[in-house]
Amino acid sequence: MNPTTFLSLAIDPALQLLPGKMQRREARVMLLAIALQESRIQHRRQIRGPARGYFQFEHGGGVAGVLRHPATRPHIEQACRDLDYPADVDACYIAIEHNDVLAAAFARLNLWWLPTPLADNEQDGWHQYLAAWRPGNPHPGTWPDLYRQAVMTVTNGCPT
């Protein structure tokens, strides 16, 4: 899937399920950059791993974390109700492999619990990505180009 399509079919609808304060331009950039970093928006299942969806969430990691964290639980429960899924770790883990809107809601909420404001630049974005996703084998060399691609996609699709 190309980034523009993913932005319009997954990220934007997911953000509409969440409170307005979560729908900022920076959220769109970060979500797109993270999906590109994690899967290039090509792999719904982690290659030789347990993660699912283009954001590559694990059952006991991101999925369970978002469903259990007090700052994110009410929001993901509402998004699950809106999309007709039970707010259950097993059900959501299975669903995010193919429901990109639900996966993007999980991803946005996985950034929500961080104590710092949402990043608005490449360097801070990298640090927030590391803090929220905790990748086992991070690839800092790919982030700058993917982040810039996300900025360009969001800017071209929604001029500021």
Write the layout of secondary structure elements.
Blueprint: H1 3-16, H2 25-39, H3 59-68, H4 73-82, H5 89-95, H6 100-112, H7 122-133, H8 143-157
Structure description:
The longest helix has 15 residues, at 25-39. The chain is built from 8 helices and no strands. It has one domain (3-157). The mean pLDDT is 96. The protein has helices at 3-16, 25-39, 59-68, 73-82, 89-95, 100-112, 122-133, 143-157. The chain is globular, with a radius of gyration of 14 Å. Helices cover 60% and strands 0% of the residues. With 160 residues, it is an all-alpha fold.
In total, how many beta strands? 0
Task: State Rg.
Answer: 14 Å
Helix content: 55-70%
Mean pLDDT, rounded to whole units?
Answer: 96
Low-confidence segments: none
Summarize the main sheet: none
Terminal CA distance: 25 Å
What proportion of the residues form beta strands (DSSP E)? under 5%
Structural class: mainly alpha
Provide a count of the helices: 8
Label the overall shape.
globular
Order of helices and strands: HHHHHHHH
What's the domain count? Answer: 1
